[in-house]
Amino acid sequence: MQLNENILQVDNVSKYFGGLAAVSNCSLNIKKGSITGVIGPNGSGKSTLFNLISGNIKPSDGNVLFNGEDITGIPSYELFSKGLLRTFQIAHEFTNLTVLENLMMVPGDQSGELLINALFKPKLVKKEEAKVKEKALEVIEFLNLKHLSNELAGNLSGGQKKLLELGRTMMVNAKLVLLDEVGAGVNRTLLKDIGTAILRLNKEQGYTFCMIEHDMDFISRLCNPVIVMAEGSVLFEGTSDKVKKNEKVIESYLGRGSKIRDGN
Ligand SMILES: Nc1ncnc2c1ncn2[C@@H]1O[C@H](COP(=O)(O)OP(=O)(O)OP(=O)(O)O)[C@@H](O)[C@H]1O
Ligand SMILES: [Mg+2]
Predict the structure, then answer these.
(1) Measured distance CA(28)–CA(13) in Å, rounded
(2) 43 C-beta closer than 6 A to ligand 1
(3) Closest protein CA for atom 27 of ligand 1
(4) In what order do the strands lie in the sheet with 84-87?
(5) What is the pTM of this model?
(6) Which residues fall within 8 angstroms of residue 121, CB to CB, at 6 or more apart?
């Protein structure tokens, strides 16, 4: 895999909420094939940056390029079909549907979505539905969720919901997946499983990941490089070891009264 090519470029992006600059003149690149970590104190603009990249909100200023194409302000459902996907800090599952049904709900290009096809081409719709189900079962197997396949998503633990979020990104041909604190509030065993799934998707299916996390152990296991945000822009970028030792980074955490979590 070409590691020198940028899959994503963020150029001088800003987002103001009233008078507050949540993201301020932020520039960064994500290399194709990488698992890039994003850390930073609470309120430093990490989730807002993801919202800007994934088309959930529009930037006040600046540009975002995906595979060289200007995607600034393109809504998330269009980016989704281009292979740019994200998960949310708070999982977005359908609580009254099973794990299997949740995965089958991920928008694809299913003919059944068009009423005219559902009415006049029922065989085609059935065949596609069977294909989607097969794919969903594959994803469930990959994520070791077989025992929960028919469980209502609302009954899953926090960690299992995060795995389901990751599973949703596997229902389509994702290229770049943004993970917003996929490991937060997850127990150590499940965190290990999530980490392994991320590594496998990266190595075996060529996913590029950009992930916001607070747990430095988890970040160190998976990510290179690590981007540190402070006050809406990039403060530092380097390996996790360099990040942990960097004075500016330590100061930015201390200044906010928070610390880099070491995973314990
Ligand atoms: N929709 C919004 N309206 C107004 N202010 C917002 C909005 N979204 C975020 N902010 C503000 O922008 C700043 C950055 O928030 P953001 O959620 O991006 O931080 P974060 O780095 O993801 O923090 P955390 O680590 O706590 O998740 C914060 O001061 C936050 O209160
Ligand atoms: Mg956040």
Answers:
(1) 9
(2) yes
(3) 42
(4) 84-87, 176-180, 208-212, 35-39, 226-230, 233-238
(5) 0.89
(6) 111
Whether the upstream peptide bond of residue 225 has omega within 30° of 0, thus cis, is yes
**Sequence letter at residue 172:** V
Residue 120 CB neighbour total at 10 angstroms:
10
Question: In order of start, what are the domains of the chain with their CATH numbers?
Answer: 6-91+171-255 (3.40.50.300), 94-155 (no CATH)
Phi/psi at 230 (5° precision): -150, 135
Residues 6+ apart with CB under 8 A from 227: 28, 36, 37, 38, 39, 234, 236, 237
The three-state secondary structure class of 231 is coil
* Partner residues linked to 37 by β-bridges: 211, 226
Ligand 1 atom having least distance to the Cα of 48: 18
**Cα–Cα distances in Å, from 202 out to 33, 60, 233?**
7, 32, 26
Which residues 6+ apart lie within 8 Å of 82 measured at CB? 66, 71, 175
Which atom in ligand 1 lies closest to the alpha carbon of residue 181?
A: 27
What ligand has the least distance to the C-alpha of 38?
Answer: 1
Contacts of 177 (CB under 8 A, 6+ apart): 85, 86, 87, 169, 201, 207, 208, 209, 210
Tens of pLDDT, residue by residue over 61-89, are 999 999 999 999 999 989 988 999 998 87
> pLDDT per residue over 209-248, tens digit each?
999 999 999 999 999 999 999 999 999 999 999 999 999 9
